[in-house]
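hey so i finally got around to running both of the ones u sent me last week. sorry it took forever, my laptop kept dying halfway thru and i had to restart like 3 times lol. anyway pasting them below in the order u listed, first the sequence line then the structure token line for each. didnt double check formatting much so if smth looks off just lmk and ill redo it

first one:
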Amino acid sequence: MDSILNILSSEPFYYVALVAGIALLVYAGDWVVKSSVWVAEYFNVSKLIIGVTIVSMGTSLPELCVSLSAALSGSANISIGNVVGSNIANVCLILGITAIIITIPISRSVIRRDLVLLLAATMLFAFSLIDSEINLLEGIFMLLLMALYMYLTFRSAKKEPPEENTDAESPKKHNIWLSFLIVIISCAGLIGGSELLVYGAENIARSLGVSDRVIAVTVVAIGTSLPELTTSIVAAIKKELDISVGNIIGSNIFNICMIIGLTSCITPLEAEANILSFDVWFLLASLLLLGITVFPIKGRTEIVRIEGILLLLLYIGYYVAMGLTGQFASIG
């Protein structure tokens, strides 16, 4: 027993736990989405509703599980840093790489509705951090903003013409009990993966002498953003880009409003000062650059390669700035 405890408390195991947690989150998150879609299709829920809810939010499940687990274990900096780092990665890293591979078309509704709501959510998030804590009332406001986003999205979806269905296009009915079982097992995998990732991240931060926040906005954020990154790159290669920008922005809104909102309703989130004084500014800069790239010029609404390069450079600049300001240095 003592030998097992020694292994579990050894530094190499922390890295194993971190990598295993990320892998389990990505794999389990993928199966949660798939099996949830099977359940929805079994009950004849429309593909549009599935896309708006299950698919768009499913890729944020890793962030949700990690943030809840971290907050409940007293590591609020991991919870908040994960969301901030993931949102920066979603815009700069994922959209940047995707746009470098192929030009990304953008729906005007994304600019008029989604981008405006994302800016509102980000400003509310930044305002909530002024006192270095996100409390119950601020969490409720975030959840209300999430409800508004869902209402506007559903209302917009209903206005779109229905897709023509043929027998050949009808979805295959999966065994409903097996689908439910996979949903349950996958959710258990998400919980287990989040526990492993938080355990590994906390102990790696301690062993390296850096703050939980630094690990959260870098390693944890990239790890929990892998579903979005994988989905977007595959979509770019297959030239199926109808979900790229809308899903990324929707995921970012969900990260702030649902994840931070729900977590802060369960327990107040105390944040490290650098989150507001450093990370949030890069988060706002990423939104400003995204807004510039998607602003319609001569009727063009797309993100082209040069704009993708600029987004990726901003992401690299975020890490360089962290290094230059000594945030990777030991705090011990």
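and the second one:
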Amino acid sequence: MPPVLLAVLIGLVVAQFANLITTVYLHRTLSHRAMTVVPAVGFVFRLITWITTGIRPRQWVAVHRRHHAFTDVPGDPHSPVLEGYWRVQLGNVAMYRRAARDSETLARYARDLPADRWDRVLFDHALLGLGLGVAFLAIFLGWPLALIAGGVHAVTYLTLSAAVNAVGHTWGRRRYDNPARNNQWLAWLTAGEGLHNNHHAAPTSARLAHQRGEIDPGWWLVRLLVRRGWGTVRHSDAKLRTPAAA
């Protein structure tokens, strides 16, 4: 395989791995308490999040909880209904950063996740984490190919993260009576996050697939953690907050 193609492939794999950790840890575990993981697994997830995305978990949680509190109405940090599809798809990262830096958003929506010693020493330093991630790639690929892989990963991860908000509130099926939409093709690319209508209907459910034909790849990791005794699911069945659509 040509080295450049290998670097692109590795970048895509890293992006999918980061998506998987984002949905299982940042989203299902921390944001909605749909599941819990043992401390050692939680620390590994924090470490992976740090070196692959540089995200501070309490910021991600705060922004996402605010999205649920103000879904597609003023106050939503990244609504295509308010801002337009392309503005969210192309500018979601700027919208996220603006909301993440808002002290009132953090104080209100992430007060259960205060910074700890590890955050102060490591995880609050995004550039250090991302630099270590690229350095690990460089050990195996060399710096030129590591930069290519890192660039592919960054573009892919940010594009898919934006699509969950942009596509997920613009197009797709609405099984439940809420503003979000289901797109199975997007769910395949985002470890289940494309089943967004299901998620808004039952945010405390660790499983995003609700019926036959829906596939939630993130649920596979959840099941593995539960089987190994490393995680516990909050509800065995989806606890619906919104009814089925007419």
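quick thing i noticed on the 2nd:
The CA atoms of residues 59 and 97 lie 9 Å apart.
anyway thats it, ttyl
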